[in-house]
Amino acid sequence: MNSTGTLKSSSSELDLDRPNIEDYLPSGAAIQQEPRGKFRLALVLTIGWIIFLSAFIPVHLLLKGHDKLRRNIERSLVEMMCGFFVASWTGVVKYHGPRPSRRPKQVFVANHTSMIDFIILEQMTAFAVIMQKHPGWVGLLQSTILESVGCIWFNRTEAKDREIVARKLRDHVQGTDNNPLLIFPEGTCVNNHYTVMFKKGAFELGCTVCPIAIKYNKIFVDAFWNSRNVFKYWPSLWRVLGSAMTLYGGQSFTTHLLQLMTSWAVVCDVWYLEPQNLKPGETPIEFAERVRDIISTRAGLKMVPWDGYLKYSRPSPKHRERKQQNFAESVLRRLEEK
């Protein structure tokens, strides 16, 4: 269920963890889904895939000589399929502000909670996104369907990928008919309470930056995808599916989707905020921090001074020892003052 509205600056919108539930629920709605209702949601997603593939495959193969027409149809089909995904989660998404448009020399940046951020944004506008390359069925979708909307993939373990991706980004933002470019500058999923430091790549392109703030409400389900979490959901289903579900060192995205589908609803607000440009004398890092502050303020998130990649690796022993030493010295100073 989607709605659009003008951007409001009232403080009540910032406190989205304690909303008026009636604003999100249809009258007479029951809080708990019946098994029959969950089956209908799975059926909705299945029907969506059948309709999508029945149209996408012929269009992709038969209209290769008509690139502009093919791209326009594929854009609409991808938006439609993302709409089916949101419907399968009983998604209640409120969009605030003007809908993004295709213009050269602009890039959209958003805070990042889960891969479903892309789906929620994509159902309104066919963005070309820069995203980590994934294995399994997600990787198959990336290399086939999502490449049709101009998405760009990277691999963190490949140092050469950085140069290639940077060149592709510069080329993409110059195109007049390319889909709007969407970047999640945090580089990893964060729990929707904080924003970690933004990577500066999106802010070095010499183009207008359009911030997008995304805030999920945990009233029915936590939309955060913790790919580093120990696997703990749906253990019996995991035993049945076995290797069909790829575990990325934590909760698989398939499991994450199942969790969302079997929850009551995914409740979310999306704000399209005022475009920003680099100010005279401002560095790309300062620009990134300014945009991060705008997004954090609008979504009611707390800015933290560390990098999102910290969850992928442990601090070095020297770094830990130095922090411990600094802490011990500060404690000793306080004791001496007393």
From TrEMBL:
<keyword id="KW-0444">Lipid biosynthesis</keyword>
<keyword id="KW-1208">Phospholipid metabolism</keyword>
<dbReference type="InterPro" id="IPR002123">
    <property type="entry name" value="Plipid/glycerol_acylTrfase"/>
</dbReference>
<dbReference type="GO" id="GO:0016020">
    <property type="term" value="C:membrane"/>
</dbReference>
<comment type="pathway">
    <text>Lipid metabolism.</text>
</comment>
<dbReference type="Pfam" id="PF01553">
    <property type="entry name" value="Acyltransferase"/>
</dbReference>
<keyword id="KW-0812">Transmembrane</keyword>
<feature type="transmembrane region" description="Helical">
    <location>
        <begin position="75"/>
        <end position="95"/>
    </location>
</feature>
<feature type="transmembrane region" description="Helical">
    <location>
        <begin position="41"/>
        <end position="63"/>
    </location>
</feature>
<dbReference type="GO" id="GO:0008654">
    <property type="term" value="P:phospholipid biosynthetic process"/>
</dbReference>
<keyword id="KW-0443">Lipid metabolism</keyword>
<dbReference type="GO" id="GO:0004366">
    <property type="term" value="F:glycerol-3-phosphate O-acyltransferase activity"/>
</dbReference>
<keyword id="KW-0012">Acyltransferase</keyword>
<comment type="similarity">
    <text>Belongs to the 1-acyl-sn-glycerol-3-phosphate acyltransferase family.</text>
</comment>
<keyword id="KW-0472">Membrane</keyword>
<protein>
    <recommendedName>
        <fullName>Phospholipid/glycerol acyltransferase domain-containing protein</fullName>
    </recommendedName>
</protein>
<keyword id="KW-0808">Transferase</keyword>
<dbReference type="GO" id="GO:0019432">
    <property type="term" value="P:triglyceride biosynthetic process"/>
</dbReference>
<feature type="domain" description="Phospholipid/glycerol acyltransferase">
    <location>
        <begin position="106"/>
        <end position="217"/>
    </location>
</feature>
<dbReference type="InterPro" id="IPR045252">
    <property type="entry name" value="LPCAT1-like"/>
</dbReference>
<keyword id="KW-0594">Phospholipid biosynthesis</keyword>
<keyword id="KW-1133">Transmembrane helix</keyword>
<dbReference type="GO" id="GO:0005783">
    <property type="term" value="C:endoplasmic reticulum"/>
</dbReference>
